[in-house]
Design goal:
The protein is α+β, with helices and mostly antiparallel strands. The chain has eight helices and 26 strands.
């Protein structure tokens, strides 16, 4: 029997019974690598390489025969594949949508490699990934990206083409890779506008639906571009399943009582969650230890970049207690301060504590999904009562304080966050002491074109002195980490309602080594 601690410590993929294997060339109706290639979860000696065979991506089973298909893979030190350093064959299984997750090992640390796949006589796009430095290596610098929230209907993914051109060690994708619904209208300054493109399905229910949503997203060539050149550290947030879900609870509607007949029964929701997480695994470049078991994924894991940075990738959805106060943006109720509330769950929080206590890195980074700062969300002068984002750490004050207490005993604590569809950053404060810094990355497309500032931003900044910057354009973060300072660049695009856009650096925030607060450059 599996329990949550088992999932948090990782698992290995048991062998699956193998049906017949198709070996003949020419068995597929069309080019099978239409969803591209990707690499992820890098280590000092390798990484995962991924692809999915889908000659007809939007058809059931991707247009593939319901049998195992061998996929050859190669990793080389050069773009021409004259020096192949690793190769093999992996079975693409119909049970996993003919996806392939190869865990490449035995490579040299801190250098680029190139990879490709061959199946049924067809060859994939060439991919690129970089190994991490050795865990005990002294490292002078690191540059990586942060991105997520890419609602297909709200805009194009042109920001990813710019990101693909950046010289990055890896990309942390904080989640909302797909959205679980289709919208008839979007809104710009309160007025309805039509989506720039449409999801094929109105709502996602079973694994076939979720597979189709990922396939449609991965057909985007800019999405394929960024995944083909940068290894990804992948996580999920809420829209991979349903808005604001936590644990075994689906918050279909805000303020819906648990006994309301429209509420999703836990057992029914868990069936949907199981299907959604299977489809997430099938399309992400993650290790086989993240294969869903019993409707759960052991998503939290640690990445160390030599002695420069230790990154703890957290899961703020699967083990969280239900949002207090009925969720939403509203004043705090007493449950916000309840002692028994959980965001990470006890096992994951203990795992995090052990990793932070071990030390050995100059910068301590938490990569996660929802804002840790407890911010007053009022944006109008006539609002008299403090408003919180209840779905963020602000709705769970006791576990939030526990994390801040750990930060108070450490140096150089950085939190990376998404979910908000806007850029902002600020100091993490415990009892009037700055103990860390948080950088919140905007969306790739969710929210549409946006503007430099949302309505009421000046009021919001004035009410929250810990906030240092806020912006409402789309884009991504580039983090440059050195031994003297951490710099976060807010990279923004001028529009997402057209496929091609212009990139600019909107702002740079700096955290100096040994100084907890943020300064704007």
């Amino acid at each position: 029997m599996y329990n949550r601690r088992h999932f948090l410590t990782g698992a290995t993929l048991a062998g699956l019974a193998a049906p017949a294997i198709v070996r003949a060339q020419g068995i597929l109706r069309d080019f099978p690598f239409k969803l591209g290639v990707a690499a992820g979860d890098p280590a000092s000696d390798g990484f995962v390489i991924w692809t999915r065979l889908a000659p007809e991506p939007m058809e059931r089973h991707g247009g593939m025969p319901l049998t195992n298909v061998p996929v050859e893979w190669e990793v080389a030190s050069d773009t021409g594949f004259r020096d192949v350093v690793a190769k093999g064959t992996e079975l693409a299984r119909p049970e996993l949508a003919h996806s392939v997750h190869v865990e490449v090992a035995g490579l040299l640390p801190d250098r680029p490699y190139y990879y490709r796949f061959t199946a049924a006589g067809e060859r994939s796009l060439r991919g690129r990934a970089r190994t991490l430095p050795a865990p005990d290596a002294r490292v002078a610098a690191l540059k990586f990206g942060v991105a997520g929230c890419q609602h297909f209907e709200s805009g194009f993914y042109g920001a990813y083409r710019h990101m693909a051109r950046e010289d990055l060690a890896f990309v942390y994708h904080y989640g909302d890779f797909i959205y679980e619904y289709q919208q008839n209208y979007l809104y710009d300054n309160g007025l309805p506008i039509r989506p720039v493109r449409r999801y094929e399905q109105r709502a996602l229910i079973d694994v076939t639906d979720f597979r189709a949503a990922y396939a449609q997203t991965l057909l985007d060539i800019d999405q394929q571009a960024v995944r083909s050149v940068h290894a990804h550290l992948s996580s999920f947030d809420d829209h991979e399943i349903i808005n604001n879900w936590v644990s075994d609870t689906a918050n279909w509607k805000m303020d819906l009582p648990d006994n309301d007949p429209d509420a999703a029964p836990a057992d029914v929701f868990m069936l949907k969650k199981q299907a959604a997480l299977q489809a997430w695994y099938e399309h992400m470049p993650v290790r086989k230890a993240l294969l869903p078991r019993g409707g759960m994924i052991a998503m939290n894991r640690e990445f160390r970049y030599g002695d420069l940075m230790a990154m703890q990738l957290l899961d703020t959805r699967q083990y969280r207690t239900d949002q207090p106060c009925g969720d939403g943006f509203k004043p705090a109720c007493s449950d916000v301060f309840a002692k028994d509330r959980q965001v990470l769950g006890r096992a994951q929080e203990e795992w995090l504590g052990r990793n932070l206590a071990r030390g050995g890195a100059m910068w301590n980074t938490l990569a996660q999904q929802v804002t840790m700062m407890s911010l007053d969300r009022r944006r109008r002068p006539d609002e008299t009562q403090k408003i919180l984002n209840i779905d963020s750490w602000a709705g769970y004050e006791e576990p939030r304080q526990r994390i801040l207490s750990r930060f108070a005993r450490l140096k150089n604590c950085i939190v990376l966050t998404g979910d908000e569809h806007q850029n902002f950053c600020g100091d993490l404060v415990q009892r009037d002491k700055v103990v860390g810094a948080e950088f919140v990355a905007t969306s790739i497309s969710s929210g549409g074109d946006g503007s430099d500032k949302r309505s009421g931003t000046d009021e919001w900044l004035a009410r929250n002195p810990e906030l240092k910057f806020a912006n409402d354009q789309r884009g991504y973060l580039v983090c440059e980490v050195g031994r003297e300072a951490w710099q976060t660049h807010f990279m923004v695009v001028d529009k997402v309602t057209t496929p091609v856009n212009n990139l600019s650096k909107r702002a740079t925030a700096v955290v100096e080594n040994g100084v907890a607060g943020i300064k704007m450059a």
